[in-house]
Design brief:
heterodimer, A: 562 residues, 17 helices, 2 strands, 1% strand, disordered N terminus, B: mainly alpha, Four Helix Bundle (Hemerythrin (Met), subunit A), elongated
Chain lengths: 562, 208
């Protein structure tokens, strides 16, 4: 028996780190078309950009510690909140889960050897890096990074002396990268599912990614052309957005939000997909309402496409338009509620193993619910007018974006870390980091709801003394949050070097990625598996991993009747 | 090592024509939406400035526009014919048809070049001297005209590059009578370029 397993070990394929292809060393990574290596290249780049933008955020909070000038000039502050937004949104939140974990996990979960277009996949990584470098470069060249806010509203973005063209072209290139990734995943989901993997046997992460990819494909081009027009407007003065020449700035806002609102769902749907993976794994139970969760992803994607007007309630819009957009906004809450209730119901009477990824998911549900409910305050016409452009909005979108996607980014990393790196991290440290993260998060952002309600405008460099006590609480919160994040990341870096080896299935997950070694071999599967049941069945084996051998074996023994 | 080489070979034989076509169609969706943003602007501004648009459109040379429409439609036909020819193993005919397509693309761009230089010569361009005496509607019309036909011209060039690659692949027998998806994708792209022009032509040349 011992000899058998030893022999089996020697015959196992090398994992994708050990694999030596055409190119060696660093070129083996830079020229790879392996979806796992590309996912890891995204991971390293995205972590760097995240830490950079986080630093900018901490500096902004530090500036707000006291009224007047604390550590920087007003112009610097304007550039910082713009760049913080651009990097966080276009370089971290939008590509975070799809580009890293979509790339690494999605092909394995559907039982494929790679994505449909591996070379285009590599190309989109290069586009991503180009966009990232342009964003960073805009900080140091020309007049400095744009000071318009990440929304680049005209006419100010046309007039600003800062380096707006370079910052917007960064966003343009990143959009192109995002489109190609989306196309890749849609085609992969349609064409490369393993035999027997019907649409309703796909893991819910794949459903989330599939809905996301459609939004990426259908919405991103609109912001591409809009930002291109801003660049043209600055370079040649074509007049379409310039009120001095007869252009209409409101049309810019429409085009901008036609992309940027659906983009909110690009950010959150993959994260919700991961929630639906983590809960059944640690609840040891089939997810409650699989089909409803799957379909609600598509419903969110479709309705989310039609609600952009709620960003413009005070910009100038007919009453009919505002009522319709307000109603549609409320409708999004329905599929979102379906998801939240199904997740909670999945935990009912489950044998829960409370570990770090699940803890982070609980944090997500708590924080995201606050974000979602305050979204209704903003979606209601009357209350929205009171809090428009205040800290209330800032608090709301940090609760849904950072609290939604950001929290789930760490949960995802905790969940798939053993699979990706083949190492286990220290669970206790991760729990401590998560606790500090949750405390810091709420200390940082909850006071912003209060300040916003009291009338503190967003993006202001200075403020009245009456806000100072809450500003101090918020700034201290930013320090706590950063401590939590650094503990989480440091714990994983330590595990990378010194952590014990991870087994194939440390959490007892039921989807396909837990049936291959950690880290997976180059081509994921020795043989394309055959799927015989749903993705979250804890009582029955639903995958035939070696259909060739197993089916032949059965034939020989005469047990299977045809 | 030899096992690894076998693995590399396996990766290269993976071929999925249906998937490749699906990917191309999705990419075309994104192109439609890219122009869609501009068409939305066109609709908004034409609604706001109906008179200015009609006045500005009178400056357009409908004859050259019509010629260009015929040229692009013909080139779309020859691309479609070249795929049919290749499927029947008439490699040479397919190549000639593609050469003709490229020629049409070039004729289109040349016409466009003369049109633009005529307008620029007359001082009609963004911030040009002729625009000083014009109404907002006319200024916006020309802003959109140069942006949309310029972006379309860029797509003509990209389409020609795609077809050039396809021709190279045909001559090296990478695209063959049984493996022609790459050519079909280049053709699809070319049809899209054609389709967008079919909307641009009436919207800019034929309004009155």
């Amino acid at each position: 028996m011992a000899n058998d397993s030893l022999a089996a070990l020697q015959h196992t394929e090398p994992n994708f780190y050990q694999y030596r292809g055409k190119h060696k060393g660093i070129l083996g990574w830079l020229l790879t078309t392996d979806h796992k290596r590309i996912g890891l290249m995204y991971l390293s780049a995205i972590i760097v950009f995240f830490l950079a933008a986080m630093t900018l955020g901490v500096l902004m909070r530090l500036e707000m510690l006291s009224p007047g000038e604390t550590i920087m000039r007003p112009q610097t502050y304007n550039s910082l909140f713009t760049l913080h937004g651009v990097i966080m949104i276009f370089l971290f939140i939008i590509p975070g889960v799809p580009a890293i974990f979509g790339n690494f996990i999605l092909p394995i979960q559907v039982g494929a050897k790679d994505v449909a277009f591996p070379r285009i996949n590599l190309f989109s990584w290069y586009l991503y890096m180009t966009g990232g470098l342009l964003a960073i470069l805009s900080l140091f060249t020309g007049g400095g990074a744009a000071d318009t806010g990440w929304t680049f509203y005209v006419p100010y973005s046309i007039r600003s002396a800062q380096n707006v063209s370079m910052t917007t072209s960064a966003a343009f290139v990143l959009g192109f990268s995002s489109i190609l990734t989306g196309i890749n995943f849609i085609v992969t989901t349609h064409r490369l599912r393993a035999p027997g993997m019907t649409w309703f046997r796909m893991p819910l992460f794949v459903w989330g990614m599939y809905a996301t990819s459609w939004i990426q494909v259908l919405a991103t081009p609109v912001i591409g052309i809009t930002l291109a027009l801003v660049i043209l407007e600055r370079a040649f003065g074509i007049g379409v957005f310039d009120p001095a020449l007869g252009g209409d700035p409101i049309l810019y806002q429409h085009l901008f939000w036609i992309y940027s609102h659906p983009a909110v769902y690009i950010m959150i749907l993959p994260a919700m997909g991961v929630v639906s993976e983590i809960i059944p794994t640690f609840a040891r139970k089939e997810i409650f309402g699989y089909k409803q969760i799957a379909i609600s992803s598509l419903a969110i994607a479709i309705i989310g496409y039609l609600v952009w007007g709620h960003h413009m309630f005070v910009s100038g819009m007919s009453d009919t338009g505002r009522v319709v957009f307000s109603l549609l906004t409320f409708l999004v809450a329905i599929p979102t509620g379906v998801k939240v209730f199904n997740w909670v119901a999945s935990l009912y009477k489950a044998s829960i193993k409370f570990s770090a990824p699940l803890y982070m998911v609980m944090a997500f549900i708590f924080i995201f619910s606050i974000g979602g409910l305050t979204g209704l305050v903003l979606g209601t016409l009357a209350t929205d007018i009171h809090v428009t452009d205040t800290y209330f909005v800032v608090a709301h979108f940090h609760y849904v974006m950072f609290g939604g996607m950001g929290t789930m980014f760490f949960a995802t990393l905790l969940y798939w870390f053993p699979k990706i790196f083949g190492r286990m991290y220290n669970e206790k440290t991760a729990m401590i980091g998560t606790t500090i993260f949750i405390i810091g998060f709420n200390t940082l952002y909850f006071p912003m709801f209060i300040m916003g309600y009291m009338g503190m405008p967003r993006r202001y460099y200075d403020y009245l003394p009456q806000f100072q006590s809450w500003q101090i609480v918020s700034t201290v919160g930013s320090w706590i949050l950063v401590t939590g994040i650094l503990i989480l990341i440091g714990n994983m870096l330590y595990a990378l070097l010194k952590g014990p080896k991870a087994p194939m299935n440390p959490w007892g997950g039921t989807t396909l990625e837990w049936r291959v070694p950690s880290p997976p071999p180059l081509e994921n599967f020795e043989e394309i598996p055959v799927v015989t049941g749903g993705p979250y069945d804890h009582h029955r084996e639903t995958y035939i991993m070696h259909p060739g051998k197993e089916l032949k074996h059965n034939e020989g023994s005469g047990e299977v009747k045809h | 090592m030899s096992e690894n080489e076998a693995v590399i070979e396996q990766i290269h034989i993976h071929r999925d024509d249906e998937g490749s076509k699906l990917g191309m169609w999705l990419f075309l969706f994104t192109e439609v939406l890219l122009f869609g943003g501009l068409f939305v602007l066109y609709a908004g501004y034409r609604f706001a400035y109906p008179d200015g648009f009609v006045a500005a459109a009178s400056e357009m040379n409908t004859f050259i526009g019509a010629i260009n429409t015929i040229v692009l439609l013909t080139s779309s036909l020859t691309v479609a014919l070249s795929i049919a020819a290749l499927q029947k193993n008439h490699k040479r005919l397919a190549m000639n048809l593609l050469w003709f397509t490229l020629f049409c693309g070039l004729v289109f761009l040349t016409n466009k070049y003369f049109e633009w230089s005529h307008e620029i010569h007359n001082g009609i361009y963004p911030k040009g001297p002729a625009l000083d005496n014009m109404s907002s509607g006319e200024i916006i019309y020309f802003g959109l005209y140069f942006t949309m036909t310029g972006l379309h011209g860029l797509h003509v060039i990209v389409g020609m590059i795609f077809i050039g690659f396809a021709m190279n692949f045909i001559s090296r027998d990478i695209i063959t009578s049984t493996n022609y998806q790459k050519l079909e994708n280049a053709g699809l792209y070319w049809h899209l370029v054609d389709l967008i022009w079919i909307f641009l032509f009436p919207l800019f040349y034929l309004i009155h």
